[in-house]
Amino acid sequence: MANNPHTTPNSGQPNDTEFKTDEHSKSESLEKYRSDATGHDLRTNHGARIADNHNSLKAGERGPTLLEDFIFREKLNHFDNERIPERIVHARGAAAHGYFQPYDNAAQYSKAGLFQDPGKKTPVFVRFSTVQGARGSNDTVRDVRGFATKFYTDEGNWDLVANNMPVFFIQDAIKFPDFVHAVKPEPHNEIPQGQSAHDTFWDFVSLMPESTHMVLWTMSDRAFPRHYRNMEGFGVHTFRLIDKQGKSRFVKFHWKPLAGTCSLIWDEAQKLWGRDPDFNRRMMWEDIENGDFLEYEFGIQVVEEEDEHKFDFDLLDPTKLIPEEQVPVIPIGKMVLNRNPDNFFAETEQVAFNPAHIVPGIDFSNDPLLQGRLFSYLDTQMLRLGGPNFNELPINQPVCPFHNNQRDSMHRQTINKGQASYEPNSIDGGWPSETPAAPENGGFESHYERIDAHKVRARSPSFGDHYSQATLFWNSQTDVEKEHIIAAYTFELSKVQRPWIRERVIQEILPNIDLELARRVGENHGIEAPSEKSAPAEELGRSSQQESPTLSLMARLPGNIKYRKVAILAADGVDAGQVEAIKQKLEAEGAEGMVIAPSMAPLTAADGKQVAPDAMLNGMPSVAVDAVIVPAGSDSVDALAQSGLGRYYVQEAYKHLKAIAAVGEGKMLLDAADVPTNEEGVLTGSALDDVFTALRDAMGQHRVWARDGKANDMPA
Ligand code: HDE
């Protein structure tokens, strides 16, 4: 037997307590896994150099392929097994690296290391996703967006697995499989992809009044953000923050986009499915490549433990939000996404988020939806990522050291040294050893909570209010937003085949939100809505607040034109000087001007100069830009006016409430396309400076809202 010098467990001090990360720690930890083939030979996975990568080994040039061909076999074997299961929900996503930096007020709320020092940058990896569609579905579908953040902190990974809406469809995790089966493409024909506009979804939600509030959010324009930089994020559940004294407070987590909130228009979103199915991921990718990083402020709503029951809803009910007027959001830090992944599969696809990943200073509440999530994520990842060692995948590893006695299973990478894979032990010096709980030591300690209850399978009566916050959301929308919601219910229900499901929504659900909403949607379906609310009093709730302005997307409009794309429509004969001036003016405001022409052939401008198009009329259609400007140049405008694509471009921009500007003869294109020129948001004139200023101001409001409704008359 070996002569072991260690006779007592835990001899000596652990050497990883002083571990410190910085903004670059995660990227540096990935470096040893990055592979660059530049300057290297083509070899098999086992290292043999390959001399011919075009021909398999055959018995004669025209004979059968030989089983002996290990080069061919390895290549096909690997290829045949390239796919893994996609996520059961949130399959389609795009991600970016960045960092989080706290403000100087964060440490007072939580002892978590990442909040302590305003100078410290913690690396993050954020994945945005849609929920319903498959991995290859479209970006701009009507759906919730996932907003999952992995903070690689000194004390381990904290995953804030959030959405862009602050509430959820169900109250208890036991209903999650039912909900997902209902919303996913239907089981007999796998239709429709990426949409909730079908019978099983509306059947389920109309039988589950608790879903009403969240369904209303998904019927709003929040369901198709213009850009990931323009959407909010919400942790949904109530969590806990634990401070240095061990005091617990309830908390809701928020991401507020610094670029403001704004969304697409439904018709535009649908057209983008075909024109650019990668719209959101492309924009994020290109912006980060261009140095236009995505920025969010991290905020918290804090509720003292003793105030837990002072609200007219239950803090543990995930179908409720805390109105910001009742508990303001305190900004406590900033996140910047500034680096694209090197490899989609290795990083974006293999990343595994889990709300159960927390660090000391953060803890769970008893929200029954959250409690269920704490089980579900690891469970599903075992299948998706092939066993329990996916934590070793480079993107999932914490940047701090981690040692324990978990061992073996599929694809184990770590080569654990020593003989003792158990604790306590006296063979390997007692290592790895426990860290005592308490802030000064750093060991995780669950919040000390007394639970004294019967074991029951029941829902708390305090979860019984299903409608009052839906009404609050409805009341808080502007008229334009309300019209869009009415149109959304009308559209979705038009896809529902079974009349009794449509009737149930219009007669039993919508009136309990708002009678006018029910009446309008009912009118569009030829179904009479009741004149009184029908739900029992406890389901209608007792909200003390009737409106909350921050629930409107308009509350945080961008206000400027930074990051916006503007189409400069041009053909041969365009005024080249004006094109250049427009580009420069846009650039000065942080926006981008793109010359869009009938083809990619260089244009010959009026002064004989060459102007290179950035894109073609049908390659960069109006749905892909935020505004349109038509510069002067009579031949150019003539050519555009005669082209169906040219006229359609401005008509479609008009329909989608975009600011449209025309300088000098540019107005002729608007006339030819029957775009009204004497109204708000259609800006014409002979002086570029004036037209540009008006265009910039109109774009600051994101869209020309006054045109809503009227724009439907446009045939585009
Ligand atoms: Fe998830 N959810 N979820 N979810 N969720 C998954 O985990 C689940 C819920 C969210 O980019 C799955 O690894 C249950 C709320 C995001 O990889 C799965 C319940 C919120 C992502 C799962 C919920 C979310 C997921 C599928 C109800 C907002 C994508 C693949 C009890 C706070 C993360 C996976 C990424 C992914 C379960 C409800 C956000 C099946 C059981 C509420 C952003 O485990």
Automatic annotation (TrEMBL):
<protein>
    <recommendedName>
        <fullName>Catalase</fullName>
        <ecNumber>1.11.1.6</ecNumber>
    </recommendedName>
</protein>
<dbReference type="InterPro" id="IPR011614">
    <property type="entry name" value="Catalase_core"/>
</dbReference>
<feature type="binding site">
    <location>
        <position position="384"/>
    </location>
    <ligand>
        <name>heme</name>
    </ligand>
</feature>
<feature type="active site">
    <location>
        <position position="90"/>
    </location>
</feature>
<feature type="binding site">
    <location>
        <position position="87"/>
    </location>
    <ligand>
        <name>heme</name>
    </ligand>
</feature>
<dbReference type="InterPro" id="IPR041399">
    <property type="entry name" value="Catalase_large_C"/>
</dbReference>
<dbReference type="GO" id="GO:0020037">
    <property type="term" value="F:heme binding"/>
</dbReference>
<comment type="similarity">
    <text>Belongs to the catalase family. HPII subfamily.</text>
</comment>
<feature type="active site">
    <location>
        <position position="163"/>
    </location>
</feature>
<dbReference type="GO" id="GO:0042744">
    <property type="term" value="P:hydrogen peroxide catabolic process"/>
</dbReference>
<feature type="binding site" description="axial binding residue">
    <location>
        <position position="377"/>
    </location>
    <ligand>
        <name>heme</name>
    </ligand>
</feature>
<dbReference type="InterPro" id="IPR029062">
    <property type="entry name" value="Class_I_gatase-like"/>
</dbReference>
<dbReference type="GO" id="GO:0046872">
    <property type="term" value="F:metal ion binding"/>
</dbReference>
<dbReference type="Pfam" id="PF00199">
    <property type="entry name" value="Catalase"/>
</dbReference>
<dbReference type="InterPro" id="IPR020835">
    <property type="entry name" value="Catalase_sf"/>
</dbReference>
<dbReference type="Pfam" id="PF06628">
    <property type="entry name" value="Catalase-rel"/>
</dbReference>
<dbReference type="GO" id="GO:0006979">
    <property type="term" value="P:response to oxidative stress"/>
</dbReference>
<dbReference type="Pfam" id="PF18011">
    <property type="entry name" value="Catalase_C"/>
</dbReference>
<dbReference type="InterPro" id="IPR010582">
    <property type="entry name" value="Catalase_immune_responsive"/>
</dbReference>
<dbReference type="InterPro" id="IPR024712">
    <property type="entry name" value="Catalase_clade2"/>
</dbReference>
<feature type="compositionally biased region" description="Basic and acidic residues">
    <location>
        <begin position="17"/>
        <end position="52"/>
    </location>
</feature>
<feature type="domain" description="Catalase core">
    <location>
        <begin position="43"/>
        <end position="431"/>
    </location>
</feature>
<keyword id="KW-0349">Heme</keyword>
<feature type="compositionally biased region" description="Polar residues">
    <location>
        <begin position="542"/>
        <end position="551"/>
    </location>
</feature>
<dbReference type="InterPro" id="IPR002226">
    <property type="entry name" value="Catalase_haem_BS"/>
</dbReference>
<keyword id="KW-0560">Oxidoreductase</keyword>
<feature type="region of interest" description="Disordered">
    <location>
        <begin position="528"/>
        <end position="551"/>
    </location>
</feature>
<feature type="binding site">
    <location>
        <position position="373"/>
    </location>
    <ligand>
        <name>heme</name>
    </ligand>
</feature>
<keyword id="KW-0376">Hydrogen peroxide</keyword>
<comment type="function">
    <text>Decomposes hydrogen peroxide into water and oxygen; serves to protect cells from the toxic effects of hydrogen peroxide.</text>
</comment>
<keyword id="KW-0408">Iron</keyword>
<dbReference type="GO" id="GO:0004096">
    <property type="term" value="F:catalase activity"/>
</dbReference>
<feature type="compositionally biased region" description="Polar residues">
    <location>
        <begin position="1"/>
        <end position="16"/>
    </location>
</feature>
<dbReference type="InterPro" id="IPR018028">
    <property type="entry name" value="Catalase"/>
</dbReference>
<keyword id="KW-0479">Metal-binding</keyword>
<feature type="binding site">
    <location>
        <position position="127"/>
    </location>
    <ligand>
        <name>heme</name>
    </ligand>
</feature>
<dbReference type="InterPro" id="IPR043156">
    <property type="entry name" value="Catalase_clade2_helical"/>
</dbReference>
<keyword id="KW-0575">Peroxidase</keyword>
<feature type="binding site">
    <location>
        <position position="176"/>
    </location>
    <ligand>
        <name>heme</name>
    </ligand>
</feature>
<feature type="region of interest" description="Disordered">
    <location>
        <begin position="1"/>
        <end position="59"/>
    </location>
</feature>
<dbReference type="GO" id="GO:0005829">
    <property type="term" value="C:cytosol"/>
</dbReference>
